[in-house]
Amino acid sequence: MPGMSAPTTGGAGACPLCDSDAGALVWRGAKLRVIHAQEAGFPAFYRVIWVDHVAEFSDLSPADRQHCMEAVTLVEQALREQLAPAKINLASLGNVVPHLHWHVIARYEWDSHFPAPVWAHPQRECDTARETLVAERLPALHALMRERLERWADLGEQ
Protein backbone atom coordinates (compact mmCIF):
# COMPACT_ATOMS: atom_id res chain seq x y z
CA MET A 1 0.00 0.00 0.00
CA PRO A 2 1.48 3.43 -0.88
CA GLY A 3 2.84 5.31 2.11
CA MET A 4 3.09 2.18 4.23
CA SER A 5 6.46 1.15 5.59
CA ALA A 6 7.35 -2.50 5.26
CA PRO A 7 8.91 -4.27 8.25
CA THR A 8 12.65 -4.61 8.03
CA THR A 9 15.31 -5.89 10.36
CA GLY A 10 17.47 -2.79 10.04
CA GLY A 11 21.18 -3.31 9.70
CA ALA A 12 24.45 -2.07 11.10
CA GLY A 13 23.97 1.57 11.96
CA ALA A 14 20.60 1.73 10.21
CA CYS A 15 18.41 2.18 13.29
CA PRO A 16 19.37 2.52 16.96
CA LEU A 17 16.22 0.65 18.02
CA CYS A 18 17.05 -2.24 15.68
CA ASP A 19 20.75 -2.32 16.54
CA SER A 20 20.46 -2.46 20.34
CA ASP A 21 17.98 -2.71 23.19
CA ALA A 22 18.24 1.11 23.40
CA GLY A 23 18.07 1.13 27.19
CA ALA A 24 18.04 -1.19 30.17
CA LEU A 25 15.96 -4.18 29.13
CA VAL A 26 13.02 -4.86 31.46
CA TRP A 27 11.19 -7.47 29.35
CA ARG A 28 11.36 -8.99 25.87
CA GLY A 29 8.58 -10.74 23.99
CA ALA A 30 8.33 -12.05 20.44
CA LYS A 31 6.91 -8.78 19.06
CA LEU A 32 8.07 -6.06 21.43
CA ARG A 33 10.32 -5.19 24.33
CA VAL A 34 10.11 -2.84 27.29
CA ILE A 35 13.14 -0.81 28.29
CA HIS A 36 13.97 1.66 31.04
CA ALA A 37 15.21 4.66 29.07
CA GLN A 38 17.27 6.18 31.92
CA GLU A 39 16.66 9.77 30.84
CA ALA A 40 18.25 12.35 33.16
CA GLY A 41 15.66 14.04 35.34
CA PHE A 42 13.00 11.42 34.63
CA PRO A 43 13.68 8.31 36.70
CA ALA A 44 10.60 6.44 35.48
CA PHE A 45 10.87 6.85 31.70
CA TYR A 46 10.11 3.69 29.70
CA ARG A 47 9.76 2.73 26.07
CA VAL A 48 7.69 -0.04 24.55
CA ILE A 49 9.56 -0.83 21.33
CA TRP A 50 8.15 -2.87 18.46
CA VAL A 51 10.72 -5.45 17.30
CA ASP A 52 10.11 -5.15 13.55
CA HIS A 53 11.27 -1.91 11.98
CA VAL A 54 8.05 -0.11 11.08
CA ALA A 55 7.63 3.65 11.21
CA GLU A 56 3.95 4.13 11.94
CA PHE A 57 1.41 2.57 14.28
CA SER A 58 -1.02 2.21 11.35
CA ASP A 59 1.55 -0.02 9.60
CA LEU A 60 0.65 -2.76 12.08
CA SER A 61 -2.20 -5.17 11.55
CA PRO A 62 -5.27 -4.56 13.73
CA ALA A 63 -4.26 -7.49 15.94
CA ASP A 64 -0.71 -6.16 16.32
CA ARG A 65 -2.02 -2.66 17.15
CA GLN A 66 -4.12 -4.19 19.92
CA HIS A 67 -1.13 -6.24 21.06
CA CYS A 68 1.12 -3.17 21.23
CA MET A 69 -1.38 -1.08 23.15
CA GLU A 70 -2.01 -3.86 25.67
CA ALA A 71 1.70 -3.84 26.48
CA VAL A 72 1.65 -0.03 26.82
CA THR A 73 -1.34 -0.37 29.15
CA LEU A 74 0.39 -2.98 31.32
CA VAL A 75 3.45 -0.75 31.68
CA GLU A 76 1.27 2.26 32.53
CA GLN A 77 -0.70 0.32 35.14
CA ALA A 78 2.48 -0.92 36.83
CA LEU A 79 3.86 2.64 36.98
CA ARG A 80 0.65 3.94 38.52
CA GLU A 81 0.44 1.15 41.09
CA GLN A 82 4.07 1.23 42.20
CA LEU A 83 4.95 4.92 41.92
CA ALA A 84 1.64 6.86 42.17
CA PRO A 85 2.75 9.65 39.81
CA ALA A 86 0.69 12.80 39.22
CA LYS A 87 0.28 11.76 35.56
CA ILE A 88 1.44 9.24 32.99
CA ASN A 89 2.54 10.66 29.65
CA LEU A 90 2.18 8.45 26.57
CA ALA A 91 3.77 9.49 23.31
CA SER A 92 4.71 7.98 19.97
CA LEU A 93 6.65 10.52 17.93
CA GLY A 94 9.30 8.93 15.73
CA ASN A 95 10.55 12.19 14.25
CA VAL A 96 14.14 11.49 15.30
CA VAL A 97 14.03 7.68 15.23
CA PRO A 98 11.36 6.49 12.76
CA HIS A 99 10.93 3.08 14.42
CA LEU A 100 7.64 2.40 16.20
CA HIS A 101 8.00 2.91 19.93
CA TRP A 102 5.87 4.33 22.71
CA HIS A 103 7.20 6.51 25.50
CA VAL A 104 5.53 5.73 28.84
CA ILE A 105 6.65 8.30 31.38
CA ALA A 106 5.68 8.73 35.03
CA ARG A 107 5.39 12.46 35.75
CA TYR A 108 5.42 14.29 39.04
CA GLU A 109 4.43 17.83 39.97
CA TRP A 110 7.99 18.31 41.26
CA ASP A 111 9.78 17.14 38.09
CA SER A 112 11.84 19.74 36.27
CA HIS A 113 9.46 20.09 33.32
CA PHE A 114 6.00 19.50 34.82
CA PRO A 115 3.39 20.27 33.56
CA ALA A 116 5.15 20.76 30.21
CA PRO A 117 6.27 17.77 28.11
CA VAL A 118 9.62 16.21 28.95
CA TRP A 119 11.01 17.59 25.68
CA ALA A 120 10.08 21.22 26.52
CA HIS A 121 12.19 23.74 28.40
CA PRO A 122 12.58 23.04 32.13
CA GLN A 123 10.24 24.85 34.50
CA ARG A 124 12.50 24.42 37.56
CA GLU A 125 15.67 22.73 38.77
CA CYS A 126 15.78 18.94 39.10
CA ASP A 127 14.81 17.58 42.50
CA THR A 128 17.52 14.95 42.79
CA ALA A 129 16.43 13.84 46.26
CA ARG A 130 12.94 12.95 45.00
CA GLU A 131 14.37 11.41 41.83
CA THR A 132 16.52 9.17 44.04
CA LEU A 133 13.46 8.08 46.05
CA VAL A 134 11.70 7.09 42.81
CA ALA A 135 14.82 5.30 41.54
CA GLU A 136 14.96 3.22 44.73
CA ARG A 137 11.52 1.83 43.88
CA LEU A 138 12.40 0.76 40.33
CA PRO A 139 13.55 -2.80 41.13
CA ALA A 140 10.10 -3.59 42.56
CA LEU A 141 8.48 -1.84 39.59
CA HIS A 142 10.52 -3.86 37.09
CA ALA A 143 9.62 -7.08 38.89
CA LEU A 144 5.93 -6.17 38.67
CA MET A 145 6.21 -5.26 34.98
CA ARG A 146 7.94 -8.56 34.21
CA GLU A 147 5.36 -10.52 36.19
CA ARG A 148 2.42 -8.85 34.41
CA LEU A 149 3.99 -9.07 30.97
CA GLU A 150 4.97 -12.73 31.48
CA ARG A 151 1.45 -13.60 32.66
CA TRP A 152 0.08 -11.86 29.57
CA ALA A 153 2.59 -13.76 27.40
CA ASP A 154 1.52 -17.04 29.00
CA LEU A 155 -2.10 -16.23 28.12
CA GLY A 156 -1.27 -16.05 24.44
CA GLU A 157 0.68 -12.82 23.87
CA GLN A 158 2.96 -14.65 21.48
From TrEMBL:
Residue ranges annotated for the HIT domain, each copy included: 13-114
Pfam families, A to Z: HIT
Motif Histidine triad motif, chain ranges: 99-103
Single annotated GO MF: catalytic activity
Taxonomy, superkingdom: Bacteria
InterPro entries per record: HIT-like (IPR011146), HIT-like_sf (IPR036265), HIT_Hint (IPR026026)
Name the record gives this protein: Histidine triad (HIT) protein
Organism listed in the record: Acidovorax ebreus (strain TPSY) (Diaphorobacter sp. (strain TPSY))
